[in-house]
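User: For documentation purposes, I need each entry recorded in a consistent format: the amino acid sequence on its own, followed directly by the corresponding structure tokens. There are two entries in this batch. Please keep commentary to a minimum and don't merge the entries.

Assistant: Recorded as requested. Entry 1:
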Amino acid sequence: MGALLLFLCLLAPFVLACAARGRRRRAAAPACGKALPLPPGSMGWPYVGETFQLYSSKNPNVFFARKQNRYGPIFKTHILGCPCVMVSSPEAARFVLVTQAHLFKPTFPASKERMLGPQAIFFQQGDYHAHLRRLVSRAFSPEAIRASVPAIEAIALRSLRSWDGQLVNTFQEMKLYALNVALLSIFGEEEMRYIEELKQCYLTLEKGYNSMPVNLPGTLFHKAMKARKRLGDIVAHIISARRERQRGSDLLASFLDDREALTDAQIADNVIGVIFAARDTTASVLTWMVKFLGDHPSVLKAVIDEQEEIARSKRSPDAPLTWADTRRMRMTSRVIQETMRVASILSFTFREAVEDVEYQGYLIPKGWKVLPLFRNIHHSPDHFPCPEKFDPSRFEVAPKPNTFMPFGNGTHSCPGNELAKLEMLVLFHHLATKYRWSTSKSESGVQFGPFALPLNGLPMTFTRKD
């Protein structure tokens, strides 16, 4: 209950802002009625809506499932101070995220924009967003990242050595691994002298990310904003040094291309934003993979067999992995896909209607939030039989279009998905071939904050096999 109250307190500014905007919209609305009806559903109490119902259970997904069962694949509700339309069909998700994406803009609390940087890719639409997406996609394409395998492997091996024989918080260790890979992919290996200070500043920023946005000395938000300023200074120094020499092939080099005409402030906002995007989601999937493989010995054995076969094919036991090796990890890739489906780290995403929109005879009013419910789609028995069962073999056949969206969909889908999959494959090659792991005696379960995670970050002991 304490965690619930804290979470609701953290949401208070977002709730108040949405409520204020809602009052302005109602005041500005014309007196005449709308020809189209709103989607079915209920709106709950004034201002708070159904927020308490959403978070009264330990699993917020129960709220969405109940609503869908009662009202169907499109329904209205009122949560976090905002009127919302939830959509839980592949067709509706495609409508919002792909075919009519220009009618729905990404939306975040203003405090988040201040922390990450208002010119970061997440907050953009139109030509500027398309320009940024092209630059990020260019740096994180398979062609660009294939040469990074040895460097990512070195980070994985260092991480595993530090866990050996220790009881660790799996999620926290996976976050550190993902952060190190992100910094490598953004700055390359030449800027490592700045990395430790940059990392510490980022960790301070992260601690304040979900805090109350009160910028007073001593508060987490104030400390986070100071760390954000220092992060900007460090990135600016790196940019200045990089401009004076050969650019390289990392993300920073892509941003610094003379033809792209990005300002230093734009580059800094997007570098910090990419660090944020690359960390928690990848770490969450890796944590769930450890959990699911530990719970399913036959699947773990298949992964070990596959990875040991790749290890035996190398010229020597110490020979590094190659991009070609990762393309042979078909079973492990299916485990990654099934982990992302079952865990559905991103249960939904927020959009906001930029004008009145009609969908299947219903009105989605301008300013309303629209939430495609990824988890509901991923757990639909219509698309995935026995959806609660962990079964990687279901991905031996490609899923139907728009039924599997772990990285989102459309122009705002994750442009770093290939890098994320690569770092998972590299880590699990060495984890499966060199280590065994066992859970602590802690209580099993799931926690939400905001991503779904094994309880307490999955305390685990990793031990080298030899």
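Entry 2:
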Amino acid sequence: MTSSRMYTFAIAGLSLLGISSAISASAADELQILKFKASSDPVVNPGKGWVVYGGSTKNHCKDALDVCSSAYTRFCWSQLESEEGKFNWEPIDRELRDWDSAGKQFGFGVMCESFHSGMKYSTPKWVFDLGAPSIAYDGEKVKGQIALKKWDNPIFLEKLSNFLAAMGKRYDGDPRISFIDIRSYGQWGEGHLGHLKGSEKLSPDGLRNHIQLHLDAFKKTRLMIPWGEPLYNPVYDWAIDKGVAIRRDGILGNSNGSELIRCKGKVPSLGEWYSSYEVHSRNTGQKYEWGDKLEDRILDDTVRGTFTYQNLGQYDMKDLFVKEKRPFIDKLTNMMGYHFLLSEASMPRHIKSGTGFEALFKWENKGLAFIFIPCGVAAALVDKDGKVVAKCPATGCHPEKWAPDGKQVSETSSLKFTAPSGSYRLAIGLFSDPTRPMPDIRLGIEGETVGNWHILGNIDVD
């Protein structure tokens, strides 16, 4: 500073933005310090949150669509390759088109066996015709359902590998996909042999091989495997080191989410309920009914397992959960996964076009987990009509390092705008893909937004 005098004053008009601000200035320079309040409103962001199960967008109410970030379903391998080498991707493509049109991602798994299937074969019949050994059992809908006897059979593994390679070629890296399950072993692909008397348990090395086949086919899209039983814990830890997320199917029933603690700070986790909201919310004294204790149980399991994702009432086709528990759902929306706040930003009040300047940002992650999708920060100049006239990356900001511990993270970033002289509003935005025209990751703060750009304050360009 060229003078020992310092002036502190409020910027006129910033109260209209819901921003408190002060400026420290000298005759040569001015620095504005902008402070922001956390919002209690639910913030739905990609890569986290509630997952709606079953059916198309038309099967769910507006509230369910508003609070979910992704949809999800499971397919049987035989649906997608009923004849060797002839693939029917339409069941997956139809879901992707439908949910993408609603602005939601879609996750899915492909099972090699399902007790609930209406088909005799979940693994294609032609795999057994080629010599893969089988067992027969009575499913929920089909008597004499055919399932694999040996999950490490070379014929089965070769044909599964070919299928996965084709699926990976078509879908790996598709931004419409939130995650893909690894469901090639066991009942429902859950890594156990429920109902499958006579089927032989995989060794840990055998399960590792199944996972590796998926990793070979999918280099970009997040893979996720259901936790099955303690025998495979070392394999799940190995998979986590490879970037594979873990899910636990059976929350509120035979699990309290503790199997997912191993994911903390490393990969996403997902909690799938044992049954639907309609069942778990009852209070008739039956097993896994929680009645008025349901919210406490969901909250406890969510925190214990540091869930990144959770099903929205399981296969709750009536959307009863969201209709009856919306305030509770909104609360957990901001807890699951990451939840970013900007508490303070400091930068000059006046800048020169084409000349760089430094800005200081103070961030917080109030969620249960790190962010596990790509995320970059950018700044923009917005004119009085809400048009972005210039933007630049805030390369000094690293959202992937913002820990879910509620502590502030201070980061300094060099910014530079080239824009006509005039008065603008400075904005900040978070992107899962830098090529997107607008930010798609929102902050949990009060104040004005323009196309998901968070308005920080006024700035003049000379």
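Summary note for entry 2:
The CA atoms of residues 358 and 414 lie 5 Å apart.
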